Amino acid sequence: MVVGLEAAPGALIPSGVLNLSGQMISSAVYDSLAVVTPAGVVEPYLAESIEPNDDLTEWTIVLRDGVAFHNGDPLDAEALKINMDSWTSSIATKGGLAPIESYEVIDDLVLKVAMNRPWATFPYRLSTQTGYVAAPTYLEEVVTVGPSLEAIGTGPYAYSDDESGTSYSVKRNDSYWNAELPHLDAIRFEFVPDPLERLSRLNAGDLDLIHGYEPGLVDGVRQKAAEGSLKVVENGTGEEDVVAINTEKAPFDDLLARQALAHATDAAAWRAVAEPAGAGDVRGPFAPGQLGFSDDDAFPAFDLERAKEEVAAYEAKTGEPITTELLTTDLLIDQQLADLLVAQWAAAGITATVRRVPSALLIVDAVSGNFQLVSWRNFGSIDPDADYLWWHSSGVVPQPSVSTNIARYSSEAIDVALDEARGSSDPDVRDADYRVVANELNDGVAQVWLGRPTWVLAANPRVQGLAAGQVTMATQGSKSWLAQLWLS
């Protein structure tokens, strides 16, 4: 099967920065300790069981017996401990595992993890990349030699070869612990940055499966699906597109300037360019059906006259105009959207320039605080607890160190709500807490909400096993779903 992805993975280290393409490939070569079922339930996967003590401060992970890495080394608790060392020490992943206080090998297949506070949703974290278990020899090579794409996991497919920036190939793992999987002999991932080229090659039969979110691609695959010539799975509740604001840097360390920016932003006009037909209004971090969502979410709506008044008030208060720089990627669509925002802000008296960088560098600049405004897409976790590190004040670290709280926005009310929700298994309690989070983010204007992308997987009709609900679009590696596909 030939799969068209939007970009090369960069790296495939579970404790590193994985873009969406990296997640897709990782879901082939790694297994996660837990998975999220189509019903939204977290279940053990590579683990046999994941069980807490009574107060949710200690979790015991029991691994499946008889599982081996691609190089033949056994999966055991010592290997899992080495992976835990990697996850909890990496600047990219340690924030998501901050409650972990210690862990120890209890038996050949048993690892006990102690927390510094109750953590009810810990198993969900093990369904994400901090659940991908890599061979210790691979992790050692990464440390001693440097990043390598020759990933070694326990997954249904093993590394075969790669052509730098062009393709990545995997082959069937004949020793896979689930004897019924995988179905395919091999998968080749080809990197096709242009979404319309991806769609064209799918229609021509050069590609069997593609992913994307760009409006031209989404509208195109919808049309082909209606004609019966493509299979399509959509997910439109995974993430939010925002302008993230560095609230520690002038002028946006002042709430008045952030309010002016929000009132000057016509998000509906932005969505008309950025999103496919039918995209709706976005006023908070949660989509309908998710914990924390409310129709009453209040965020400063587009109001050009009010924006002008706030710009004037800021100038009167500080003696300075509102000038800024917007950081975005060098992709053509992102350049067009950045220019649209700059024009909107200029109408309100806000002067902005645009800095365009490759997506990998944008992530580095964002987490290190090297920006004033950044075009950002985030908050895509199924369970809001996995977004804890983006909002809690513990994620704010002085520059130039990595700050997972991109906006560098601190709120005691948000911290209290996030901590209470993390320690509770009561959905009503958690829902109320996450509503507090949404309201506080909106009151502080930590970011300007723009839209909610619709991600699609589109496949040639000969691709079988692709079902709605099977794939977590925002974290494509929630389970080894690629192993379930076959070609007729």
Write the layout of secondary structure elements.
Elements: E1 2-5, H1 20-29, E2 34-36, E3 42-44, E4 47-52, E5 58-63, H2 77-89, E6 100-107, E7 110-115, H3 122-125, H4 136-144, E8 157-163, E9 167-172, E10 186-191, H5 195-204, E11 209-212, H6 215-227, E12 231-235, E13 240-245, H7 255-264, H8 267-274, H9 304-318, E14 323-329, H10 332-347, E15 351-357, H11 359-367, E16 373-378, H12 388-391, H13 412-422, H14 427-444, E17 447-451, E18 455-459, E19 463-464, E20 486-487
Description:
With 488 residues, this protein is an alpha+beta fold. The protein has a domain of 212 residues: Roll (Dipeptide-binding Protein, domain 3), CATH 3.10.105.10. It has 14 helices and 20 strands. It has a seven-stranded mixed beta sheet, sandwiched between helices. Strands 15-14-16-13-17 form a five-stranded mixed beta sheet. The protein has a four-stranded antiparallel beta sheet with strand order 4-5-7-6, covered by helices on one side. β4 and β5 form a beta hairpin. The longest helix has 18 residues. About 2% of the residues have low confidence.
Beta-strand share of residues? 15-25%
CATH class of the domain at 240-451: Alpha Beta
Radius of gyration over alpha carbons? 23 Å
Strand order of the largest sheet: 8-9-10-1-11-18-12
Total beta strands: 20
At CATH level 2, the architecture of the domain at 240-451 is: Roll
What is the residue-averaged pLDDT? 92
Largest sheet: 7 strands, mixed
Helix content: 25-40%
Low-confidence stretches: 471-478
User: How far apart are the termini?
Assistant: 11 Å
CATH topology category name of the domain at 240-451: Dipeptide-binding Protein, domain 3
